[in-house]
Specification:
Layout lengths: L4 E4 L6 E3 H8 L1 E3 L3 E5 L5 H8 L16 H18 L3 E6 L5 E12 L2 E10 L8 H16 L5 E5 L4 H9 L3 E2 L8 E5 L12
Parallel strand pairs: 7-8
Antiparallel strand pairs: 1-2, 3-4, 4-5, 5-6, 6-7, 8-10, 9-10
Helix pairs in contact: 1-3, 2-3, 4-5
């Protein structure tokens, strides 16, 4: 894969390269969290989070069967970062090394459009502290500021109430007109019949 230009800037006067975007997204600190680019040693942490049945209640594919599956996901994360300069972060508390979860935005082509898929998944011991919302709000703010050409989309199972609340708290708007087998929340996607306004 090769590095490429990823978006117009907020002023529309220049193009941000993957290197420019990486300088912004590589590591971000919020009030309580460090959101950092994934590293080679994160394969086991990916398995702890994605291999846990509790984190996959609404995932039709189920938990990762083994660490090899998680290593495949890690390599895909590396590839995405190399191409776009942003991607899935590993999440830790400030001044701590233990990985609590993973999340961020990734480029996808969905409904024949380039979009940013909002993703968040945390280990059960981290649930109930608002970390998912803190991550999601940060990811959405950065995406809309530095990658405004691409809508942010979250596709959520109807029974996954915590994930729905996280998408809403991150500022995404419920879009029943875009639903598939998932409920869809979006920001920056023009409403039906109106290509001049983005929500």
């Amino acid at each position: 894969m090769h590095k490429q230009d990823v978006s117009t800037s907020t002023t529309g006067s220049s193009i941000l390269s993957a290197a420019d975007v990486a300088s912004i997204f590589d590591e971000v600190t919020t009030a309580r969290l460090v959101l950092r680019r994934v590293r080679v040693m994160d394969g086991l942490a990916i398995f702890w989070v994605h291999g846990d049945p509790a984190t996959n209640l609404y995932n039709p594919y189920g938990p990762h069967a083994d660490i090899a599956t998680s290593e495949v996901m890690l390599r895909e994360c590396f590839d995405h970062w190399d191409v776009y300069g942003f991607g899935i972060w590993a999440v830790t508390r400030v001044q701590e090394e233990e990985v609590l979860g993973f999340g961020g935005v990734e480029h996808q082509v969905w409904r024949e459009r380039d979009v940013l898929n909002l993703y968040y998944r945390f280990t059960p011991s981290a649930w109930g502290h608002g970390y998912g919302t803190e991550l999601a709000r940060t990811a959405v703010t950065l995406a809309r500021t530095y990658l405004p050409a691409w809508p942010v989309v979250a596709c959520v199972r109807a029974k996954n109430i915590p994930s729905i609340r996280t998408a809403e708290r991150a500022g995404l708007i419920r879009r029943p007109d875009l639903d598939t087998e998932h409920m869809v929340f979006a920001l920056g996607w023009a409403p039906p019949g109106d290509q001049g306004i983005s929500l």
